[in-house]
Design brief:
Elements lengths: L6 H7 L3 H27 L3 H17 L3 H15 L6 H17 L1
Helix pairs in contact: 1-2, 2-3, 2-5, 3-4, 4-5
Length: 105
């Protein structure tokens, strides 16, 4: 599995340390809550809401440089809209990798 990185954030911040830190702070603050809401919606089989949660998380996946994971999230989001949860475990693994990475920042 690919690993998160700050390459895109570095590119966006263009050397502005304050901006980079703000981006990281926003991700670290929002991601855990978004993850929990997603997990609750999956548990209650509220797949339409879970698709919306995946949509929000998908952007953080992209910002953290996870290109393959982004494609999985994009497909999973569309699948959830149809009630298909086939990629649930793959997405769960992506969430775990991101959670572990954010602890190190």
């Amino acid at each position: 599995m690919e690993l998160p990185n700050l390459s895109y954030i570095d590119q966006l911040s263009a050397g502005n340390i304050s901006f980079k830190e703000k981006l990281i702070t926003v991700i670290k603050e929002e991601f855990p809550d978004e993850k929990e809401v997603y997990l609750a919606n999956i548990q209650t089989k509220n797949y339409k809401e879970a698709a919306e949660n995946v949509h929000k998380i998908k952007h953080k996946i992209s910002i953290l440089g996870l290109e393959k994971s982004y494609e999985i999230a994009r497909t999973f989001e569309n699948n959830l809209k149809e009630g298909n949860t086939d990629l649930k475990e793959d997405f769960k693994n992506i969430l775990h990798v991101i959670s572990e990475y954010l602890i190190t920042l």
